[in-house]
Amino acid sequence: MIEVGMALPEKVFYIDRALLKAYADASGDQNPIHQNEEFALSVGLPNVISHGMLTMALAGKYVTEWAGGSANVREFSARFIKPVIVPAGEKVDLTVVATVSEVDGNSVKLDITATSAGVKVLGMAKAVVVK
Amino acid sequence: MINPDSVGRTFKGVEHVTVTQSQIDAFAAVIGETDTSVAPPTFSIRISLSQYESILTQPEIGVDWTRLVHGDQKFEIFRPIVAGDVFTCSATIETLRVAAGNEIVSVRSDLHNGTELVVTSWSTLVVRG
Fold first, then answer.
1. Residue B42 and residue A29: Cβ atoms within 8 Å?
2. Do B30 and A28 touch (CB under 8 A)?
3. Closest CA to B52 of A37, B118, B44
């Protein structure tokens, strides 16, 4: 039984530089702030940062797993409020949880929380799935 | 500066974009998705962002792509994208405002396969001043 307020289990993804390269190639977003540390520092960033859309894609994977597949996702939105910082040689976490915020027939709305190193990186992250 | 006359206008994408299975496979692999019968929910950003780049950087609009930061993103998915979809993409500049020296442009992307609207998405793009 899916009810408003129900908490979904937490899932942890890991992001490293190799994943950023893979996402750059898969998405076509080759912005050097996601791959080149020297460049990232030169534009005032603390280090190489993840593509916001990679963070969102991983949160999307969390949603689709619970929803029973990508085909069940109807709406998905998020704000990129803080960067996910990815130092060389490290795997940083992206920890995702969600709660059910609305149920309307077979349509379920989720409020999603995504943090990295304890910092909230997505704001107002919501999805609507059919379940 | 972005040309304020561009607000409210819809720009057609420059080409048809065909989705291939290998594109879906590569995108799915990055996020650990093993079911590639349909595309992951955020796959369409691959199409929309490159269309935005080609449209918004035209001199008549004037976005400096090198100063761009992604502010937020929303997808409305009418049906999942599958290999073989051939999309025409339009980009509509919905709002433009300036805050703290940055230009903040809100754009909508509509992906049509023939006459069928498959995905609408909204992106807030921040051009750092």
1. no
2. no
3. B44
Strand runs labelled E in B7-67: 10-12, 17-18
**Segments of A42-121 assigned E as strands:** 73-80, 92-104, 107-116, 119-120
- At A131, which helix (H) or strand (E)? none
Of A22, A15, A16, A35, the closest CA to residue A94 belongs to A15
Number of residues that make up chain B: 129
Give B54-65 pLDDT, tens digit per residue: 888 888 888 888
Interface predicted TM-score (ipTM) of this complex, two decimals: 0.96
How far is Cα A71 from Cα A63, in angstroms, rounded to an integer? 11
pTM: 0.96
Give the tens place of pLDDT for each residue, B46-89: 999 989 988 888 888 888 887 888 999 999 999 999 999 999 99
Q: Which of A52, A53, A58, A51 is nearest to A112 (CA)?
A: A58
Q: Identify residues of A whose CB sits under 8 angstroms from chain B CBs.
A: 13, 19, 22-23, 25-29, 52-54, 56-58, 60-61, 63-64, 69-71, 73-80, 123-124, 127
In angstroms, rounded to a whole number, what is the distance separating the alpha carbons of residues A7 and A11?
12
